[in-house]
Amino acid sequence: MPRQRALSGQGTAYKERDRNGRVVWVAEITVTLPNGLKKRVRARARTAEEAVRLRDARANAVRLANPDADRMTVRDLADRWLAARAHELKPSTLVTYRKSLDAYVLPALGDVRVGRVMPLDVETMLARVLATANERRDMRAAADRARRVTSSMFEQARRWKLVTENPAAEVAAIRPRERERGYWTQDEAERFLVAAEGERYEPLFRAALETGLRLGELLALRWADVEGRAFVVRRTFSSDTGEVQEQPKSAAGRRKVPIGMPLIEALGPRRGSGELVFPARGGGVLSPSSVRRAFDRIQAKVKGLPRLKVHDCRRTYASLLAAAGYHPSLIQRLLGHASVDMAMRVYTSVAEESVEGAVLSLGGGKRGSVRGVEAHQGGGGRAKVKGSPGARSASASRDSRARAGVRRSRVRSS
What is the pTM of this model? Predict the structure, then answer.
């Protein structure tokens, strides 16, 4: 019996003598076709590595020669892939994948045989997506989503043994364009709210800035979700499906967020107007596009105000909490993020002036001091600095408020 050993975790390789009595290596592997049939592939060579290389090349030829792999197009693969994942993905995620496929991937690759798609084809498709960008629309995010969808689809094809390699696996990610700043200072947020006074969406925009809820979470908010001085996030509205989902974006999204008196007073006259806190005129869910247009229109009225998206109200909320000294774990919980890293990486920034003003002075044998840190909240005064006598009482008070906020925001996972 020849001595066998596994190579690269697939198949086997062993020595035997050929007809002339010479010792050669034999590499074998079983190929399972999509129809369930199995075929044993064998190759011989002087070294184990060469035998395995020849075996893999022959196995690839067998896979591509089977009817499914030879005739299947990327369009066929997309349909099978989405059908296979339908049970594990949210409806909104499926809709997002289908939109990306229909808009970008299939027009370029839909009629190409699955086994003939090369990395260059994927990069050419992405270049076409990026070429449709203009001053009003940056296509980087759409192109990178198409890349991720394509890679996930071909990775499944690889597991199904339709291809031996994922042609999108090594295509570089498309980085989003760096924005100078994606949040407002306290002064800028207040100027925006002044400009929004009397507007139909004023309470909604105040809620976005003062709670950090996602737009979909605000649109699905019911009066039953307003408990005392807090919003309880239990569900969200999906723009992709046009439906309210009874579960938030993630498990961490189910949370309680405290609200202040200005927001409570703004919501007061709206009570009793229906089930939703922010309904459309007919009582249904507001159109997200209408909200975004109103947000842009109000921004344009404020001279010198940095242009943001509605979603950036979350970053403003988080940045102001961070500037006030609240702990990252509390900010994470209030935002409904699964990890502290994501909350702090995406939603907080430190102004250069604050960094330069953080001066540590150590006296020779004397107690030093920390001084010079200013709160850049659009004209706010000097912040009390940690370590100073006045700051210790302020810090204790702030920690007490933070602990109280944690208790108020704790919601049992269902």
Answer: 0.57
